Amino acid sequence: MPHHRTDDLDELIACPVCDALYHARMPETGERVTCSRCHHVLIAPKEGAFLRVIALALTVMILMLGATFFPFLSIDAQGFSNAASVFDSALAFTDGGWMVALSFATAALIVLIPVLRAALVIYVLGPLAFGRKPWPGARAAFRWSEDLRPWSMAEIFVIGVAVALVKVSDLARVDYGPAFFMFAALVVVIVLQDGSMCRWTIWKTLEDKKSS
Ligand SMILES: [Zn+2]
């Protein structure tokens, strides 16, 4: 249960679900602070959470490398066979015009933004995980990573592909390449990473370590 006090505006925390306002304090490790109105978890610091988030962010970057360059799928139809990676597909639209812009934007949403977010999280949490002072610009980097969250579309890409493949499978034989399974794994890892990040704890640690 959050602490009720009336001083210190910095320590205010609003429930993202029901907007109830609380004065927050750092709970003991393993303890969690929940909204007393709707029971949404507000603060949940976990032992070793920063290191776990860093490990998951590294996993995102490595998986994304494979998911981009390994064959994504191969299609067989009437004797013709074609295998392509996501990278090949992004380069396929080089004949000019707005298709180039479209393929670049698609590649950015699917590949670059999730990788950028992972890199920002590692930059922010790296020093904190070892009890050091944050690196310069860590607050801006974390803000940026949070702002980019809705634009990270690896998950939506996987769902889109699944729907498209159901349609295509009537016309041609479709085989999934290793990159397809890497994308599927990415979706799980990104969800795990976002789930193990207690944002309040990260902001609070950035604030406390800044002056020390
Ligand atoms: Zn609430």
Automatic annotation (TrEMBL):
InterPro entries with a match to the protein in the record: PqiA-like
The entry's keywords: Membrane, Transmembrane, Transmembrane helix
Residue intervals passing through the bilayer: 49-73, 97-130, 151-168, 180-202
Coiled coil start-end: none
Domain of life of the organism encoding this protein: Bacteria
Record-given protein name: Paraquat-inducible protein A
Lineage: Bacteria, Pseudomonadati, Pseudomonadota, Alphaproteobacteria, Rhodobacterales
